[in-house]
What does this fold into?
Amino acid sequence: SLLSRTPQPQLLTSGAPLPQPFAVPLPVPALAKPSSPGHYDLVEQAAEVEILPGLRTPIWGYGGQFPGPTIEARSGETTVVRLSNGLTQPTVLHLHGGHTPPESDGYPTDLVQPGARRDYTFPLRQRAATLWYHDHRMDYTGPQVWRGLAGFFLVRDPAEEALGLPAGERDIPLMICDRSFAEDGSMPYPGLPGKPGVREAYMGGVLGDVILVNGAPWPQLRVARARYRLRLLNASNARTYELALSSGGPMVRIASDGGLLAAPIAAKQVRLAPAERAEVIVDFGAYRIGDQIELRNLAGEGPQAKVMRFVVDRDEADDSTIPRVLSEVARLDPSKAAVTRDFDFNSGTMHGGGGWLINGNPFDPKRIEARPKLGDIEIWRLTSDVAHPVHLHLAQFQVLSVNGERPAGPPEWKDTVELRDAQTVEIITRFTGYRGRYVVHCHNLEHEDMAMMATFEVV
Ligand code: C2O
Ligand code: CU
It folds into this structure.
């Protein structure tokens, strides 16, 4: 069958002793401090951090931290990130979900060399949303993100702040990713480019056996009997999560990759493919003091079925609300589309070995796969062999159909959509703001590094 011929993600087994789940408190990444209003300095550094109790883990981090510091920015206000590369390898910064001019979008060959620095300018003419920044170097995104190069970038706006959603300490970003650890505490990455054979073994993707939230293994958070806004990000290289509460209770979904939904949707499960985000509100006021509620991963087994735990330990006043109307999400009209384009995500042969291709081609910066016109609405028909989380730079989109069926519910803005095995997903988008070169790619980072990426140029 198709599946048996196609490489599947490989689970790495840790050699280090692993902690009991829920023994470690949840860290919340520090907020980045601006060097002047709207300006942030991010220095990429090698560092050692304690992830597993008693062991030192070498990482590459923005500011030497994993996750990197959280940047809080405002819609419509230009934010400049000055990236300094203090590492031994070239890097590229990409703001995932950003509506960004091409020279600041982190094209995969636009390298910042060791010792060099570069300003990335983000005008942020876009709505409030949970974005993230991460490395995007051609052929090396998998290993460089695995080592720790990822952080949150939150865009806020007044309309969202006026809603009365949980805020402050009850608005918590949760970066979920999997890693595995050698006996000495290091996080070796197996599929390095240039190591023949090793890379091919991990062509399907790299899965770790430890689930980290904000860089801590299976952590625990003490919460009040109140509503919390949880910004869920799947920052894993290749793992997809199906998140659910052990209580069976609801999580109220309020936002997707592209910000607020039209209206809240109570959900028992939230599925997140690599790079997808979902914001949910959990009302711990519905529980009793002493209750322990696990966030589980129904798509995982054994330890990988656990994510983190909440312990309700106090009463506190709560004046937050979940309004019935959250935002306006106008449906893009398919009859206005200038063109429908096909993008086939499929494995194939490149340079005599296996590779991941789009429309039969491996990524080549010299090749332009599509030239949408500025201002045009387009429909992109995406097809898959095996599962691929597809991410489009620059333009947020809406899902028009999955295997010919229109999705239930009102439209939502996305920047990453999961194609499951042998699926056809049609998305509709409008190219606004900037002309220039951008990429569309699979966000399984091993697939991306093995060339499942294509350039489009807005003309
Ligand atoms: Cu999250 Cu092109 O990347
Ligand atoms: Cu893929």
Remarks:
- The pocket of copper (II) ion (ligand 2) is lined by residues 356, 388, 442, 444, 447, 452 (CB under 6 Å).
- The CA atoms of residues 373 and 459 lie 5 Å apart.
